[in-house]
């Protein structure tokens, strides 16, 4: 599946603003709401609420899409965001504010880099994670 | 915890991420020269030539090809696709240049031996199978053409077909 590149970029901007709001307010319910948004986007890029908002309200005001990108990297990034925000939600809602702040800050780095520079931090980290995981045991590469 | 912690964390994250983003953007696609014998730290204990050539050959590098663009990609990587299109186009236009793209994840042994940390990483390999230049992140056409021209033997450079 191919996505209009402006959709995920728009979603990254909204996500950045929401994550800043989570840090400023320390509101665990807002963090939980963003966790659900990430979960939907990871399950199916077309289910992402920010993506739906972009398609129905923003894109009709813009020109036709010129650039497309595959949905897989976008979904992967949403899954990484989901993991961090799930931890953050538990942190804020259980009173472990430091955990909430750290996890939200990590997610904000990724969302902001995506929004401002078009960089996908989760995608950059993917190979590092695979390298690290296979080193600790998997017989795939070692001989 | 005071009410200022959250806002301070937010500001700090944005400042640091801006710096990191600018740095990464500048580094992306920058071809660095590789000193002979230093391209494979994972194998540095052995004689490099003997160790690296069979591996590169097993990855699809054909000895004698003036320039091989060996690209490591991963599935979740949008810049890998732009890099693929660019490398394939340069390989088609510039005689003597071949493009080989590999899925990094299914070649983790080579990924370690060749010191690949990010995708896309493009290695510019000469006819002897020596890695001469390398870049991580998507290069621009100008960056790639410059790196190819530096490695391509003089006689092979056909500038007339290298349209910008």
CATH class of the largest domain in chain B: Alpha Beta
| Average of per-residue pLDDT values of chain B | 84
Taking the alpha carbons of the first and last residues of chain B, their distance comes to 57 Å
Number of structurally distinct domains of chain B: 2
User: In whole angstroms, how far apart are the ends of chain A?
Assistant: 37 Å
What does this structure look like?
The complex is a heterodimer of chains A (143) and B (164). Chain A is mostly helical. Chain A has one domain. Chain A contains six helices and two strands, in the order βαααβααα. Chain A has helices at 6-25, 28-43, 49-58, 71-94, 97-117, 121-135; strands at 2-4, 68-70. In chain A, strands 1-2 form a two-stranded antiparallel ribbon. In chain A, helix 1 packs across helix 3, helix 1 packs antiparallel against helix 5 and helix 2 runs antiparallel to helix 4. The radius of gyration of chain A is 16 Å and the shape is globular. In chain A, 45% of the residues are buried. The model of chain A is unreliable at 137-143 (pLDDT under 50). Chain B has helices at residues 5-27, 48-58, 78-93, 108-113, 141-151, and strands at residues 32-33, 67-73, 97-103, 121-126, 131-136. Chain B has 164 residues and is α+β, with helices and mostly antiparallel strands. Chain B has a five-stranded mixed beta sheet, covered by helices on one side. Chain B is 41% helix and 17% strand. Chain B is elongated, with a radius of gyration of 19 Å. The interface between A and B is large, with 37 and 34 residues.
What's the structural blueprint in terms of helices and strands?
The complex is a heterodimer of chains A (143) and B (164).
Chain A lengths: L1 E3 L1 H20 L2 H16 L5 H10 L9 E3 H24 L2 H21 L3 H15 L8
Antiparallel strand pairs in A: 1-2
Helix pairs in contact in A: 1-2, 1-3, 1-5, 2-4, 4-5
Chain B lengths: L4 H23 L4 E2 L14 H11 L8 E7 L4 H16 L3 E7 L4 H6 L7 E6 L4 E6 L4 H11 L13
Parallel strand pairs in B: 2-3
Antiparallel strand pairs in B: 1-5, 2-4, 4-5
């Amino acid at each position: 599946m191919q996505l209009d590149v402006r959709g995920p970029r728009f979603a990254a901007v909204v996500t950045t603003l929401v994550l800043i709001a989570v840090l400023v307010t320390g509101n665990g319910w807002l963090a939980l709401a963003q966790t659900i948004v990430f979960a939907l986007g990871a399950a199916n890029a077309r289910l992402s609420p920010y993506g739906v908002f972009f398609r129905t309200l923003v894109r009709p005001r813009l020109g036709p899409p010129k650039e497309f990108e595959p949905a897989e990297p976008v979904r992967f990034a949403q899954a990484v965001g989901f993991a961090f925000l799930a931890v953050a939600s538990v942190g804020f809602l259980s009173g472990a504010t430091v955990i909430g702040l750290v996890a939200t800050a990590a997610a904000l780095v990724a969302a902001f880099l995506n929004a401002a520079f078009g960089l996908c931090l989760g995608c950059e980290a993917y190979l590092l994670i695979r390298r690290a995981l296979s080193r600790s045991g998997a017989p795939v590469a070692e001989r | 915890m005071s009410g200022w912690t959250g806002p301070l964390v937010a500001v700090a994250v944005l400042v640091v991420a801006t710096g990191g983003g600018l740095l990464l953007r500048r580094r992306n696609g920058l071809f660095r020269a590789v000193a002979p014998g230093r391209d494979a730290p994972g194998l540095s204990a052995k004689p490099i030539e003997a160790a690296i050539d069979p591996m590169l050959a097993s990855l699809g590098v054909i000895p004698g090809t003036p320039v091989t663009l060996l690209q490591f990609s991963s599935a979740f990587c949008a810049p890998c696709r732009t890099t693929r299109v660019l490398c394939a186009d340069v390989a088609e236009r510039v005689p003597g240049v071949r493009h080989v793209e590999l899925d990094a994840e299914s070649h983790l042994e080579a990924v370690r031996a060749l010191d690949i940390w990010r995708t896309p990483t493009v290695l510019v390999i000469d006819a002897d199978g020596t890695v001469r230049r390398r870049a991580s992140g998507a290069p621009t056409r100008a960056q790639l053409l410059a790196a190819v021209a530096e490695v391509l033997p003089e006689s092979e450079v056909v500038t007339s077909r290298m349209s910008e």
